[in-house]
Amino acid sequence: MGLHGKLIAAMEFKAGGDVFHELFRHNPHNVSNASPEKVQGCDLHEGQFGHVGTIICWRYTHDGKQQRGKEVIQAIDEEKKLIQFKMVEGDLLELYKSFIITSHVETKGDDIDLVTWTFEYEMLNEDVEHPISLLSYFIDLTKEMETHHLAKP
């Protein structure tokens, strides 16, 4: 059947993995400052930014379409700089029965940080495509965040 899938992308992040993790954990509402064409907003729906169980709502543009997604933070690991979001409502759930997005920062050596995005999902049926364009979107978003933070004085 093949309805379950997992996609992973890792890329170097020159602006510092702590900056990246901090942004997504405590200040996701500021992601739109780094990439306003991709992310129009992130609103706190329930709880407190940076805590497991918190529900946040994203407004974003993907493949030229306005989208929205409500996610619950289901795991945080400060040591691994990991945060995991589970989609609970929104456009992605029109195609996927479940969708989990994990970001993880790994330090390689003194000045190399890798940002890894992992998507774990279950498609509603066999006609649904794997979310490769969404993974590409996240790669581009990460690059834009890096450029934004490197450009700061």
Automatic annotation (TrEMBL):
Full protein name = Bet v I/Major latex protein domain-containing protein
Identify the SMART domains for this entry: Bet_v_1 (SM01037)
GO process terms (BP): defense response
Q: List residues of the Bet v I/Major latex protein domain.
A: 2-152
List the lineage, top down.
Eukaryota, Viridiplantae, Streptophyta, Embryophyta, Tracheophyta
* InterPro entries tied to this protein: Bet_v_I/MLP, MLP-like_ligand-binding, START-like_dom_sf
